Amino acid sequence: MNKKIALIMVIITSMALAQNGKQVFETYCWGCHHQTAVAFGPSFSQIASKRSIEEIEAMITDPATISTILGYKRNAMPAFQLTSQELEAITAYILSFKPKIDTKQTIEKKAQ
Ligand code: HEC
């Protein structure tokens, strides 16, 4: 396949994934989590900065067990029965809020 077409398809797929993730977020998670601000639960940027895909997916599927493993004394988050696509999409959405540290810019600034 043409490289350009392949690249465009990858971009479209990841955009669709992010869009679905946003929908899952608005349907199930929004009441307790916000993207960057702490609500009842931690913000997605906090979660993304310290958790792996596996930890996030496990927490959504089985919070009663996983919250203890993640260091919470009590579990206030309910379990969600999501399809594997929804689970993949919401996890990608959460991880898209990972804070970006631009080391190159910081190094350039120091050099000036
Ligand atoms: C009723 C409120 C509520 C809803 C709805 C909710 N959460 Fe949570 N969530 C919490 C709370 C509170 C915690 C902190 C741990 C606990 O109490 O179980 C948490 C923790 C988490 C964590 C782990 C945080 C960490 O330390 O890494 C993830 C991941 C997470 N939530 C994802 C989701 C996703 C995705 C949804 C939607 C599908 C969702 N939550 C819906 C309340 C909620």
How far apart, in Å, are the first and last alpha carbons? 45 Å
Question: Could you tell me which ligands this complex binds, including any ions or cofactors?
Answer: heme C
Content of β-strand = under 5%
Q: SS-based structural class?
A: mainly alpha
The helical percent reads: 55-70%
Number of helices: 6
Report the average pLDDT across residues. Answer: 89
CATH architecture name: Orthogonal Bundle
Give the topology string: H per helix, E per strand: HHHHHH
- Report the strand count: 0
- Please summarize the sheet with the most strands: none
Instruction: Work out the count of structural domains.
Output: 1
Point out poorly predicted stretches. none
CATH domain class name = Mainly Alpha
CATH topology title = Cytochrome Bc1 Complex, Chain D, domain 2
Task: Tell me, briefly, the overall form.
Answer: globular
Please state the CA-atom Rg, rounded to the nearest Å. 17 Å
